[in-house]
Amino acid sequence: xxxxxxxxxxxxxxxxxxxxxxxxxxxxxxxxxxxxxxxxxxxxxxxxxxxxxxxxxxxxxxxxxxxxxxxxxxxxxxxxxxxxxxxxxxxxxxxxxxxxxxxxxxxxxxxxxxxxxxxxxxxxxxxxxxxxxxxxxxxxxxxxxxxxxxxxxxxxxxxxxxxxxxxxxxxxxxxxxxxxxxxxxxxxxxxxxxxxxxxxxxxxxxxxxxxxxxxxxxxxxxxxxxxxxxxxxxxxxxxxxxxxxxxxxxxxxxxxxxxxxxxxxxxxxxxxxxxxxxxxxxxxxxxxxxxxxxxxxxxxxxxxxxxxxxxxxxxxxxxxxxxxxxxxxxxxxxxxxxxxxxxxxxxxxxxxxxxxxxxxxxxxxxxxxxxxxxxxxxxxxxxxxxxxxxxxxxxxx
Length: 397
Ligand SMILES: Nc1ncnc2c1ncn2[C@@H]1O[C@H](COP(=O)(O)OP(=O)(O)OP(=O)(O)O)[C@@H](O)[C@H]1O
Ligand SMILES: [Mg+2]
Known about the structure:
The protein is of the alpha/beta class. The protein folds into 2 domains: 2-134, 3-Layer(aba) Sandwich (Rossmann fold); 137-380, Rossmann fold (3-Layer(aba) Sandwich), CATH 3.40.50.300. The protein has helices spanning 11-22, 47-52, 64-77, 91-100, 112-135, 158-172, 189-192, 201-204, 213-217, 236-240, 244-257, 271-279, 291-307, 329-336, 348-356, 360-363, 368-377, and strands at residues 2-7, 27-32, 55-58, 82-86, 104-106, 145-150, 177-181, 221-223, 227-230, 260-264, 282-287, 316-321, 342-345. The longest helix has 24 residues, at 112-135. The two termini are 37 Å apart. Residues 133-142 have low confidence and may be disordered. The protein binds adenosine-5'-triphosphate and magnesium ion.
């Protein structure tokens, strides 16, 4: 059950929100009609409400500047509460709102159904954040999950998997999911998400951003699916200067501010990837459906196990799977000596989606690749059954 607080002087928006909450969300709504906001959270929410409120909506009528200022305070003092701002669609406004800590924007003219979906999602995200410390297996209590996507060989779909994983996890934790492109020389997360980043990894690991998570947040790029991205440097030379220590500090900072940190990597086990695996609470190990990629994966698993760098939860995903490759999933399992968890078919929609800059999960949610990617996401969803205990044989569908 979620608790929603709405601040608005707009009776029509209030009514639609009441109808949305009354229409099937398990939750209760409190409405405040005084839209002049105070300076501090405790002047809006008493002690009890601060502990129980899941979603606070700055509705129509609330002065924008006041909402943003207060959102920044909430973001630091009460990060479990999901903040929603009613504002017209405007990318610049959305960006500064999200930098202030607002997690979702709702159109002031949104329908009852749109408000219902948004409140449900924001409530779920708040619940996930509150549950986090108890569930958290990450080193350092209260920090988010770091999921490193790695493969020994190039071109097997790490970026495709990492971007879709981030988008999918962003639905569980909107504005609390970030993807980091650690393929520092030739990373293409920005291309896969059609982003034009103003800042990149190069700035994020240096100067004030390296000291302060709030400054770091300003260097991230917002994607329309309510996730953040930290894109690869603009030039390979800049990428070269990023050390394992930079990576360790960066991921620690991000995990303190986000529920999910998804890390895309370069092929192989370079210094940056090893640092990302060392910090990871989870990994996705990817191979294609060809002998050299599968043998490479076996070696990678062996090396990581010896180094003690294999996180406990590390689903194996076979990508670009098709029946005409001459090897089967069982052959792959025999070679890597462990079960394959997810098989992602080679599909035209997946290839097309990358070129279009729209993850296949958004572009073609019913495509075979999207269905397999959704299965992969359940490995990181605390509300899904524990996939390690209920392992089902992965098959190519
Ligand atoms: N399931 C799939 N079906 C069809 N095409 C796919 C699939 N997965 C990935 N691709 C395509 O394969 C190409 C390589 O994918 P991707 O860039 O994700 O691999 P990568 O492992 O990140 O490569 P690199 O090691 O070069 O970073 C892309 O053009 C992508 O669109
Ligand atoms: Mg890649």
